[in-house]
Write a structure and sequence with these properties.
With 312 residues, the protein is an alpha/beta fold. Helices cover 39% and strands 15% of the residues. Helix 1 crosses helix 11. It is globular and about 50 Å long. Bound molecules: adenosine-5'-diphosphate and magnesium ion.
Length: 312
């Protein structure tokens, strides 16, 4: 993967598939590895990034910036060490005076100031969806494994092509570890690399209620681990072979599908069995390494990914 890429559009065809969750956690994982990151809510009509990270919607937002009423620095808020957010407004009044074209300048300015810029793009096929796809160095396509979501993802691929954007790959979200869906096959059909699979995980919802990114709220959870892998993979520090697959892991919050025996350690509804305890140790080790690296390593930040314990 090209580490020269620093502006990513997080996009999907269908809404509600996990774009904002991905933007927030990918950004936080990159920041945790020592990068300066800004996440931008370019879902101008249905902004909700602020809620994920406990920002007040009354503050100056991207809406005022795109309306020419404020500078982007006035709408950039520090969330935690290394991570900033540019929220969008919630009201329709400020939306009306927005000039989407101004986004070009905003992205150029943020590109100069940050190591990584993540654009949380709205779903669908409107102008404000297409523009960011062309402004980004690469598009991270987000989809669930559901056929309707994959089908809409295909449309977003077409749009990205037309907007002159290139697609880094697809992230499959809300995957069910116990299902027999062929995730690699979905990526192949889209003709894209499978960057990561993010398992369905109840801690995602808990983190939203807590207003804290999941990778901080519960760094040991399966989805956190998947998002740290995604961060490493995007910046070229993780091998595709190391991608955690979570097959046979007990992470699923809704084990509604049939559960064929996947591994010796996992027999059905065991929530805290040996497999999860073992991988937690690995994750803790990886987190300490990240902390140690960001303190001592003045050079290129690194993201370490635990061994995929539940692979096989
Ligand atoms: P989008 O930005 O694409 O509309 P969101 O990130 O807002 O999607 O996610 C939609 C809903 O799905 C949210 O309620 C979120 O908490 C939930 N969600 C996203 N990813 C997961 C996951 N891996 N496991 C469980 N719930 C998830
Ligand atoms: Mg969203």
């Amino acid at each position: 993967m090209n580490t020269q890429e620093t502006v990513y559009a997080i996009a999907s065809g269908k809404g509600g598939v996990g774009k904002t969750t991905t933007t927030v956690n990918l950004g936080t994982a990159l920041a945790g590895a020592g990068n300066r990151v800004v996440i931008v809510d370019v879902d101008l009509g249905m902004a909700n990034l602020a809620g994920f990270v406990s920002l007040s919607p009354e503050d100056t937002t991207l809406h005022q910036v795109l309306a020419g009423e404020a500078d982007v620095t006035e709408a950039t808020y520090e969330l935690a060490d290394g991570i900033w957010a540019v929220p969008s407004g919630l009201g329709l009044d400020s939306y009306a005076s927005v000039k989407t074209e101004n986004l070009r300048e905003v992205v150029a300015e943020l590109r100069d100031q940050f190591d990584y810029v993540l654009l949380d793009v709205g779903a669908g096929v409107s102008h404000e969806t297409v523009l960011p796809l062309g402004l980004a160095d690469a598009v991270v396509l987000v989809s669930t494994p559901e056929p309707a979501s994959v089908q809409d993802a295909r449309k977003t691929c077409d749009l990205a092509d037309r907007a002159g954007g290139s697609i880094a790959g697809v992230v499959l979200t809300r995957t069910h570890p116990s299902s027999d869906i062929d995730h690699e096959g979905i990526a192949e059909k889209l003709d894209l690399p499978l960057l990561a699979t993010i398992p369905e995980d109840p801690t995602v919802r808990e983190s939203v209620y807590a207003g804290t990114p999941l990778v901080v709220h519960d760094p040991k959870s399966p989805a956190s681990r998947a998002y740290r892998y995604l961060a490493a993979r995007l910046v070229g520090e993780a091998d595709p072979e190391d991608r955690p697959t979570f097959e046979g892991s007990p992470a699923s919050s809704t084990p509604s599908e049939s559960q064929p025996p996947q591994s010796d350690a996992d027999d059905g509804d065991a929530e805290q069995d040996g497999a999860s305890a073992a991988s937690e140790d690995d994750v803790s080790a990886a987190i300490s390494e990240i902390d140690a690296d960001s303190e001592t390593d003045g050079g290129q930040p690194r993201i370490d990914i635990p061994d995929a314990e539940s692979d096989s």
